[in-house]
Amino acid sequence: MNKILSNRFPYIAVNNKNYQKICKLHTSSFSRASFKAGDKIRIQKTLTQKDLDTFSNLTSDHNYLHKNNGNKRPIVHGAFLNGLVAGLIGTHLPGPGTILVSQTMKFPNKCFVGEKLTISVELVDVRKILKVKFFCIVEEEKKVVFEGEAKLILAKDS
């Protein structure tokens, strides 16, 4: 069931078995004035071995660390985590028309299949170049597995 979470910004919560998402809904056109520093979005997602296998096949990254090897837990691809963040940035905050200019990132801890992730993006500066910070956290362990900042621009309408 979908539920609007805010009147100031139309947020929607979407739930299914492995995915809980809190999304800022956008109209087809938006501008820098639509945002302010401090705007945030967050999703929760639990990645499965099937997710990793699909990503491995798409990217041809078949490193054994990403496979179920008996008693060792598979490690989630760093690029997969980055893709989840990019999905939030490109579709929700700031949203469609966002172009990545630069990005810094760190992977301070390993992320394993089956861990429940909270992926968050926060808009920290709204100027000609927008700046966001992002985190992927395993909440149960208070473990940061991916963090960084990105500089973005909004595409000009054609």
Automatic annotation (TrEMBL):
GO BP of this protein: fatty acid biosynthetic process
Gene Ontology MF, one: (3R)-hydroxyacyl-[acyl-carrier-protein] dehydratase activity
Domain of life, per lineage: Eukaryota
Domain MaoC-like: from-to ranges: 42-133
Gene Ontology, cellular component aspect: mitochondrion
UniProt organism field: Euphydryas editha
UniProt cross-references to PANTHER family, sorted A to Z: HYDROXYACYL-THIOESTER DEHYDRATASE TYPE 2, MITOCHONDRIAL, HYDROXYACYL-THIOESTER DEHYDRATASE TYPE 2, MITOCHONDRIAL-RELATED
Protein name from the UniProt record: MaoC-like domain-containing protein
Pfam assignment, any one: MaoC_dehydratas
InterPro entries in the cross-refs: HotDog_dom_sf (IPR029069), MaoC-like_dom (IPR002539), UPF0336/Enoyl-CoA_hydratase (IPR050965)
